[in-house]
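Check this:
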Amino acid sequence: MSQRVVSEGLKDRVTEQMIIQFLMARKFEVDRAMTLLYSHLQWKATNNIVGDNVPLTPSILRELESGRVIVPPLSRDLAGAQVIFFKPALLTASTASNPTDFCVAIYYMLQRCIADLRTQRLGFLFVCDLRGTKMTQVDTKPIRAILDMLQNKFPGRLRKVLLLEPPKFFRMAFRLVKPFISQKYLDKMTVMELRDITKYVSPSALPAEYGGSMPFDQRACIAQLQMENQKTAAPVVSSIPASVYGVAAQ
């Protein structure tokens, strides 16, 4: 694949690490990996992302600090996949009308995760925490944008999606976005109660709000990421110091 990349004029836009990521994401099927790579590069260009350096603008930082998506680096499921927590109940009207910064913020966090070869190999477990979600917050625009990025633009491997305690209206609302979800992703979705989450994630790897014992401070984590972002274009999640953990949430 590396020879094909060079011959097609992508030498200055890809690295050996990227090539490995895309090959692993598509189980070393070269044509599928190339299709994903081109879509990825086009998406980055559309969102003004140069190389691996995501510009942490004030609006993107606000998205990261909002808690709508949290990625505790030490939170892994029983199979070793990185756990991502998504809270639709925290979505706002501005995010729904213009989900670009929201998607870029998610991309930034996930890109940092797959810099760890273990995460690239074992993939992600998404916990979609639907508790407290209102019908007005189930907007197809941001959900479609996120799904498109995850399915068609990002070299990550999704292991499972846990739909945590969906409200009664969710089944009706889900029909609106279901056509935009590949069957492969649909097969990975499981509806469950909060009390059953430990079937997938150990309590020691869960934040307190999910009944776990892992302390995590989102603001402290984002502040550390911002500091690291000023020093290097593509830091690794595992480089976050232990001081981030054990700090009481403010």
Summary: The domain at 47-238 is CATH 3.40.525.10 (Phosphatidylinositol Transfer Protein Sec14p). The longest helix spans residues 30-46. Strands lie at 69-70, 82-86, 124-129, 158-164, 189-192. The CA atoms of residues 17 and 45 lie 19 Å apart.
